[in-house]
Amino acid sequence: MPGCRSLLVLLAPVTLALSACLHVDAHIGPRPVAPPERKAEPAPPAKADPAPPAAVEPARAQFAVLPKVPGEVVRTKPEAPATTSTNTAQKPPEKGPAVPPNILKAGSGEPAAFPPLTQQLVPPEPPLMSAVRAHCEGRPEQAIEIIRRMEPNQQEFVLGVLPILARGASADLANDPATAAALTDQLRAAASRLEPLAALKIEKVAFCTNEPAGFGRFVQRPTANHYRPNERVHFYLELRNLGHQLTPDGFLTHVHGAAEIRDAKGNVVAQLATDDHRRAPVVKFEKRFVTRSPLQDFYVWYAFSAPPAPGVYTIHVQLSDASGRRTVSTPADRACEFNVAGP
């Protein structure tokens, strides 16, 4: 080494005389540290057509790039995305020639006609309203012609009621008793024409102490008074809408009846018939009344003997008119029950 030092001493004066110029060709930096060895890992599954690796620029042309592994460089700062300069003024779209607004021109011909209006279909007026209107407007002949188009039963009823409606709507009924009486008679006449067509109706039933003296004239037997075996029982019924028949002797009111008695279990109990005094499950009877005037109120009285055995019983009565087309039965309630006590 002493020889090397003497050589440097000799070259020093020569070096000082030369111009100071240094040129470094290679990049001098810290030596990259090799990463620690990794254990062999199982190879990942092969992927189809892997994308080729991106080309890496030479280290000499990149700035501020540190090596990560030998032969590979990593940027310390990500590249900024490419942006478009916003300062560039956009050219406004070209405008075409201005279009003038629509100009209404006066027509030379006659104006067009308005479209025809749709005619609304008005439903026809019911015959009853037409008849009432004609009668109220003082055209009774036209009202009668309209009523003739109805059914025969409707014609008779409308002809009887229409004058009552017209007169009652214009009369002072509170201060005109004569008009009220006339309207009452007309309403009764109209109701009498409907009675033969109306359904029969039993309005009241009751047990009496004896035979009734007339319509609504009876003494009702208390419910607590039980009958004795074979005691006489009087049963009272009020009937509506029965009507009458005109005969040479007067007005005939005719009704047919059938009665049966059932015990608490619903079994039919035989009773004595009114004509031959034999026991029968159902006893039939008939009521006929001939009067000089039509009966406005009608009742039926039926008498029978109480069953011999004690218990609770119910009487069922069915009534029908002379033709047999209209029938009605007593209601199935406690009003038709009676009790028979022991001897």
Automatic annotation (TrEMBL):
Residues 1-26 form the signal peptide. PROSITE patterns: PROKAR_LIPOPROTEIN. It comes from the Bacteria. Residues 33-99 are annotated as: Disordered. Residues 42-55 have a biased composition (Pro residues). Keywords: Signal. The keyword Signal applies. This is Uncharacterized protein. It comes from Gemmata obscuriglobus.
